[in-house]
Amino acid sequence: MRNYEPAMSFGKEVAEGDPGRLRGDEDATVAFLRQLAADGPVLELAIGTGRIARPLAATGVRVDGIDISQAMVDVLRTQPGGEHLDVTMGDFADVPVSGTYPLIYVVYNTLKNLLTQDEQVRCFENVVEHLTEDGAFVVEALTPAALGLVDHQYVHAEAIDVGSVWLDVARYDPATQLLDESHVTLTSAGVRLFPVVQRLIWPSEMDLMARIAGLRLKERWDDWDRSAYTGTGNVVSVYGR
Predict the structure, then answer these.
(1) Model-level pTM?
(2) Cβ neighbours, 10 Å, residue 162
(3) 46 Cβ partners below 8 Å, 6+ apart?
(4) 179 is in which domain, residue-wise?
(5) Same domain, 95 and 182
(6) Number of folded domains that form the chain
(7) Which of 62, 166, 215, 216 sees the fewest Cβ atoms within 10 Å?
(8) pLDDT, tens only, 71-104
(9) Which among 212, 219, 209 has a CA at the least distance from the CA of 240?
(10) What are 78's strand-pairing partners?
């Protein structure tokens, strides 16, 4: 995607609409993570507006976060419980925090926002530096097989109403593994575009990244409810030393 900058995907307009975009799996996600958190603290990479961090913190465990978008963090601070979370501004691939955690996690395909293999490997390597000896690194990342690509592209109608249409439009480059995507809103007021670029990762490649960093796959599921892994779902992977 020419002239794309990651900041385009996480600016003020996106951030202000983000708290209401619940996926319906928040309770299952929090329950899954809480089992691994022990007494905490835990660290979320790309904490955003706190869709998971806020309800996880409400269970009594301390949740820290990293994020590159000041707009996202500004909205986080306005949400219930968000004012108490310790957030470090920076690139989550660098894991620019001190101390160690029994649980570090990244959800909702966010690992793919790192657009090169080197960045993704660097993230794994830096996570290891901040994991306790028995700690877990949890990654949620949709397998490319679940995208339903035809000729390396798709157009999905996300929502259709009387006065608006929401489309998800994407094109994949298998040579670079980059998915150029835009969420398109059509209304009587005009057209709005919300672009995002991701580097897609197959679970097997992610496992190799983990091994380079000194981690091994401990669990893999198709979702937060621990459905059996089929390779076609929203894959949840748990890594440890």
Answers:
(1) 0.90
(2) 4
(3) 65, 66, 67, 68, 92, 106, 110, 113
(4) 146-197
(5) no
(6) 2
(7) 216
(8) 889 989 988 899 889 999 999 999 999 999 999 9
(9) 219
(10) none
